[in-house]
Design goal:
globular; 4-stranded antiparallel sheet; Neuraminidase; disordered C terminus; disordered N terminus; single chain; about 50% strand
């Protein structure tokens, strides 16, 4: 099985039969989103409009060419809302949040790679600061500080709202669509530290709590949904010890309910998972490396092995994984190699092109597994 990994700042790509590291200078980006040999991110370089005093940052779009093993990056927007770090890259469109200078609101915009034009998503204006955006199969969703989220299916803007104000979103929902009538969402409720699941069969005024948190005990956060499967991070309260345990990855589906992920390490902190198909990826907080595995807990393996890079917040799509990394100097690197024959190693200085890991020396690294 081929696994392609693309990461930002550390841009990692694993392909069959190749090994090496490429690096170039980049600032400290956020909100990476990978889709089919492309990834988007917020470059986090901020600037202020002297008239409106609004702070902005820029959105970048990178394309990886498997033939030449080169990554081409294009700035696609300079007016992204600073602080709204998420991007959503799907089907040749990159979604992000931007202030509307004329109306004083924030809206979701998208850049279309086929036309290289930017358009506003209908019905996405909000007086509050929209923080989160997610996209899947022509559906884009967003939320602000209200007890609701909205999504646009290409024809209509739908709002899922809790009329009892019993939950409140402080970050965007994760959205999944089959491209037809089925839309699913998972989101974090900041009032109860819980995770909710919603789909189109439930109507637009309710959602199902699938992981109940407690401000004084266990809590859950950072959910992602794909075709009825939800992954999330969480920390369970240990009554014997009198404090919370380490951070773990949890899964939920309607058949098995909420379960601790079998590949989550005991005694170490695992956070910020993502899911696509039956593949999940997550960050291991203690040494800031990236792991991935199957949804059922099999084939768990570590895919980065750097000691001087903080690698976090992976995004996964179709066997490709992108993540953020920071070694303190804003270096971007790319590692190429067959799984089990490459990966890891040091990232060279900016603007250099080096083959760091011989194929034989790197053999077997990726297949290292947790006990």
């Amino acid at each position: 099985m081929k696994t392609t990994v693309i990461g930002v700042i550390c841009v990692i790509v694993l392909l069959a039969g190749e090994s090496g590291v490429y690096a170039y200078k980049n600032p400290d980006p956020t909100g990476v989103s990978v889709y089919e040999n492309t990834f988007s991110y917020n470059d986090n370089i901020t600037w202020q409009d002297e008239q409106t005093y609004v702070w902005y940052s820029s959105i970048q779009y990178s394309v990886y060419d498997p033939g030449s093993r080169q990554i081409t990056t294009t700035p696609i927007a300079t007016n992204a809302l600073q602080g709204a770090s998420q991007t959503a890259n799907y089907g040749g469109k990159v979604y992000y949040v931007s202030p509307d200078a004329d109306s004083g609101t924030n809206s979701v915009y998208y850049w279309d790679s086929s036309t290289e034009q930017t358009q506003q998503v209908p019905g996405s204006g909000s007086w509050n600061q929209i923080r989160g955006v997610s996209a899947s199969n022509g559906v884009v969703a967003w939320s602000d500080w209200d007890p609701s989220f909205k999504y646009y299916d290409g024809n209509t803007v739908h709002e899922v709202v809790d009329t009892n104000y019993s939950w409140q979103l402080s970050s965007g929902p994760s959205i999944w669509s089959d491209g037809g009538t089925v839309v699913q969402a998972a989101f974090y409720d900041q009032l109860s530290y819980s995770i909710y699941y919603w789909d189109t069969t439930m109507g637009y005024d309710t959602a199902l709590c699938i992981a109940q948190g407690d401000p004084y005990g266990s809590f859950y956060y950072a959910p992602k949904v794909y075709d009825g499967k939800v992954v999330m991070a969480g920390q369970l309260y240990d009554p014997e010890l009198g404090y919370n345990s380490d951070y773990d990855i949890f899964t939920w589906d309607s058949t098995n309910g909420l379960q601790r992920y079998a590949g989550s390490a005991v005694g170490l902190d695992d956070e910020y998972p993502d899911i696509n198909g039956d593949t999940i990826a997550w960050q291991q907080y203690d040494d800031y490396n990236i792991w991935m595995g199957n949804y059922d807990g099999t084939n768990v393996r570590q895919i980065t092995f750097t000691d001087d890079m903080n690698e976090t917040n992976p995004s996964v799509w179709g066997g490709q994984v992108a993540w953020l990394a920071n070694n303190g100097v804003g270096t971007v690197g790319s590692t190429f190699g067959q799984e089990g024959e490459g990966g890891g190693g040091e990232v060279p200085e900016p603007s250099t092109l080096l083959l760091l890991l011989p194929l034989a020396a790197a053999a077997g690294l990726i297949r290292r597994k947790r006990d």
